[in-house]
Amino acid sequence: MEAYSDKVMDHFRNPRNVGDIENPDGIGRVGNPVCGDIMELYLRVEKDVITDARFKTFGCGAAIATSSMVTELIKNKTIEEAAKISNRAVAEALGGLPPIKMHCSVLAEEALTKAIEDYRARKRDAGKEG
Ligand code: FES
Questions:
Q1: Does residue 104 have an active-site annotation?
Q2: Looking at the whole model, is its pTM more than 0.90?
């Protein structure tokens, strides 16, 4: 399939960080309205740095490759740095996606945004208790 870069094929065939995290510090669950595909992203965060990220994606090859790439991009980044990663940045890191598959990368960006929102909400709640 020459429409896909070698990196996309690599991350599709050997996705990094598949799975979940027990008692995660943040979870993002999203569905793609275009196709119905689903992604879950789990974060482990220590002192506002993402020390681990895992995903489960029920979706197409581009969705799996972008999920895999986003977990690689956000590891060891601060929450603030990770929040700035766009779907375009993920697609670029993969050497590009065919235009018709760009919507697939939106899943990764939205899951990341939700997981960060979830982390921040948990932190706020924990702050209230303490
Ligand atoms: S076709 Fe659904 S995310 Fe790619």
A1: yes
A2: yes
